[in-house]
Known about the structure:
Layout: H1 40-63, H2 96-99, H3 107-115, H4 117-120, H5 133-144
Helix pairs in contact: 1-5, 3-5
The structure holds heme C.
The site of heme C has 26 residues, from helix 1, helix 2 and helix 3.
Amino acid sequence: MIARISLVLFTAAMTACSAAEDRPASHMRQTSPVNAEPSPTTQNTDTLTEDIRAGEKLYASRCGACHSVDANRIGPMHRGVYGRVAGSVAAYNYSDALIQSSVVWNEQTLDLWLTNPQEFIPGQKMGYRLSKEYDRRAIIAFLKTLTPIDETP
Ligand code: HEC
């Protein structure tokens, strides 16, 4: 039995990137540190950046034995994986279970997959699980940054 996952809203993760517009003009520059508290937006951006950096290292150590970003190895290449339909990299030899799963990779489906691929998609062939919640979150944040490079004409 295979779970059918409907397309989940692609909530843009980019909102955190549009900070720093409403600063006072440069001639207003203050010399005292009175208003120097960081805004919440800045803190969120920092947290996301930290997750992505940690995720990149974790990706190399946890996933790098089988995967790489731009080449099919034991597992399929990961560039563009976020938002992609499971089992859709050309020239990679997927299990039938993954191809027939109708899963779209987003935060929720990636989290389920990395927690226990066999439970999520029985019959798949990835023999690896990531039990730490933080590691999954950080790696997923990193995977999101791997946008396709060949999509723009
Ligand atoms: C022991 C080797 C191995 C390791 C380690 C491994 N994978 Fe995989 N991965 C595979 C294989 C094999 C497949 C293909 C599964 C299939 O076809 O059923 C796969 C498939 C995937 C897919 C599906 C991609 C697609 O195109 O549909 C994702 C996502 C994925 N792996 C993420 C990861 C991440 C993230 C890690 C590190 C936390 C990881 N894998 C670690 C072997 C591995």
